[in-house]
Write a structure and sequence with these properties.
The chain is α+β, with helices and mostly antiparallel strands. The strands form six sheets. The protein has an eight-stranded mixed beta sheet with strand order 10-9-11-12-23-22-19-16, with helices on both faces. The chain starts with a strand and ends with a helix. 30% of the residues are buried. The mean pLDDT is 84.
């Protein structure tokens, strides 16, 4: 047979066909086929596993600060939730925040009464007007948490704690999404909202605006109170707050506060050192087992002050107010503080627990005109309590239950200075307020840090890592490939 002038023998075609058939029986082909089948089998298993895992509702959070995990306190709130809650996010379609959505979906997984929906503010420009008093639109990225009774708006910028650096640049320091959403849920389902009254009329310090906003975000309503004009502390008062009074209360005011506290009242006193005597305030505090030292606390231990011995970084004791701060490695800063003495003689029903305590090397400066930082004759010996928590629990025969009065007393009001808010001072105040109104489950819900941590390594460590990555690992792979080639070559 001729093809293109070339004669091809039938026997040659048979030979080639036979050679092709024999190649399928070759050991190399068999091993190659087995490897291909094994690879296909493994890929099929991975696809199936992926599909199955995608249907499992459980999610494992491997982030360092558990960014996507809900706290035990939030889980307790959701466990008792028995009414429908709608969480509405305002985002343009396709621009939803995936990190926020993942956290919110965990709320829905824990309680089916919670629904998560998104509304495009561009396509629905009038949607948000019904949620604002002035009829303005809400900011994109904001959330609305609502029940059948009421709603609460969480502005986009309230989802973060912002901090300015030394150059005036503002950046997000921590994420407060869980804190805001859980507080909003409690707000919309609450039968009665807590009210804080700040005492006025004695040259008290005003509540800083930034702290007031944080308190209101925790679902408190803040009002002012003058007991000179009011007959008593209002019935809707949850907590009475006294901030750095410069003058004493009158005996009539003292009696009104005593009456409020005796009826399961709750109060926080933040007291600065003053030159004049305040016998009525002193008498009120002594009846609850504490007294103010009226001496400037100087810290003698370098590990317990910042820059100045009067700028104290106290030790944190064990208490519901303090425990979440200790676990988060927070610190507080007290400036110009006085000690809060726990009296030996007090009612048996009163329990006083130290919260913030100086070191044993601290002393109290009794001569406030002195300019030296050295200990002088007449100074008080430490340690000192900078803050204490007081609980007075007594049995009420008529009601057949315990009546508990709670107080927090802090020997410092500079504590509230906004520039120290990021240290932990604000967290201490918020935790104290929640403890006073028996909301321990909210105390530990705090923002999660967004600060990036960098790995610091030496030049030698860099050289070792580069050697392993650039030389050692490629040599191991090359050696393994060479050994495999030799084995297959002799098959």
């Amino acid at each position: 047979m001729e093809l293109g002038g070339i004669r091809v023998k039938k026997t040659d075609r048979k030979t080639r066909r036979k050679n092709i058939m024999n190649s399928f029986k070759d050991k190399k082909f068999k091993y190659g086929g087995y490897a291909t089948l094994l690879t296909a089998f493994v890929l099929a298993i991975l696809v199936v596993v992926n599909l199955v895992v995608g249907q499992i509702p459980y999610r494992l959070d491997l982030t360092e600060n558990r960014m996507f995990s809900l706290s035990d306190q939030t889980e307790k709130v959701l466990e008792n939730l028995d009414q429908e809650i709608r969480i509405i996010g305002l985002y343009q379609t396709g621009r939803e925040n995936p990190m926020f959505d993942e956290i919110l979906q965990r709320y829905r997984r824990l309680n089916k009464n919670i629904s998560i929906t998104y509304v495009d503010p561009v396509k629905n420009p009038t949607f948000s007007t019904k949620y604002t008093k002035d009829g303005n639109n809400l900011r994109e990225g904001s959330y609305i948490v609502e029940s059948d009774e009421r709603f609460k708006i969480i502005d986009y910028y309230d989802l973060f704690n912002l901090r300015s650096d030394q150059y005036g640049n503002t950046h997000a320091e921590s994420l407060a999404l869980e804190q805001r959403v859980t507080n909003a849920i409690q707000y919309v389902i609450a039968d009665k909202l807590p009210v804080i009254y700040t005492l006025e009329g004695h040259m008290e310090q005003a509540l800083p605006v930034q702290l007031r906003q944080q308190i209101e975000l925790e679902n408190y309503e803040v009002k002012t109170l003058s007991l000179l004009t009011e007959e008593n502390v209002p019935e809707d008062a949850t907590i009475l707050m006294v901030i750095a009074p410069q003058r004493d209360i009158t005996p009539e005011e003292e009696e009104k506060i005593r009456e409020f506290l005796a009826n399961r009242g709750r109060a926080i006193f933040m007291m600065d050192i003053v030159d004049n005597e305040m016998p009525n305030f002193d008498s009120l505090l002594k009846s609850y087992g504490v007294a103010l030292n009226k001496a400037l606390v100087i810290e003698g231990d370098r590990n317990n002050y910042f820059q100045n011995p009067a700028w104290i970084v106290p030790n944190m004791e064990s208490h519901d107010i303090i425990s979440p701060m200790r676990s988060s490695k927070m610190q507080v800063l007290a400036i110009g503080a006085q000690g809060v003495e726990i009296l030996e003689e007090k009612k048996r029903s009163i329990e006083v627990n130290p919260l913030l305590v100086t070191s044993n090397n601290a002393w109290g400066r009794t001569d406030l005109t002195s300019t030296t930082v050295e200990k002088e004759e007449g100074d008080l010996d430490g340690p000192f309590n900078i803050a204490v928590a007081i609980a007075d629990k007594e049995w009420d025969e008529k009601k057949g239950e315990y009546e508990e009065t709670k107080l927090v007393v802090v020997g410092d009001a500079e504590f509230l200075n906004p520039q120290f808010a990021s240290i932990g001072n604000s967290d201490f105040v918020l935790n104290s307020l929640n403890w006073l109104q028996d909301e321990q489950e909210i105390i530990a819900i705090r923002p999660k840090s967004l600060t990036s941590k960098y790995l610091t390594i030496t030049a030698f460590q860099k050289l070792v890592i580069a050697g392993v990555a650039v030389i050692l690992i490629p040599l191991i792979i090359l050696g393994a490939g060479f050994v495999m080639w030799l084995r297959r070559r002799h098959l």
